[in-house]
Design a protein that fits this description.
about 45% strand; mainly beta; Immunoglobulin-like; about 120 residues; 4-stranded mixed β-sheet
Length: about 120
Amino acid sequence: MGHLSTHVLDTYHGKPAEGLRFKLIRKTGDTETVLVDGVTDADGRSNKPLLPGAEFQVGRYELRFELAAYYRAKGVQLPEPPFLDVVPIAFGIAEPNGKYHVPLLATPWSMSTYRGS
């Protein structure tokens, strides 16, 4: 059985992004299905399982991170509209037994991701 996880690091403050709201969405054609609506824990990780058991399927997905709301809650003054607001990471799962880790490293003005292990 495959595995999907995420981890958000707040590189502006130099620590895990605790309390960042995110959504995991399955994309099928023009249809989007929200699978997880969660908040990161003290370590910046999902506080809910992502695609547990039989939900782990080959397909197209998107993680949407509410970055501007997170930074505003931390007291960072952002312009309106913010440079980065909701950050989408669209990715595919091609290996039914693969391990997919989708980390996000972010500041109010930059972000990067990669397929981790």
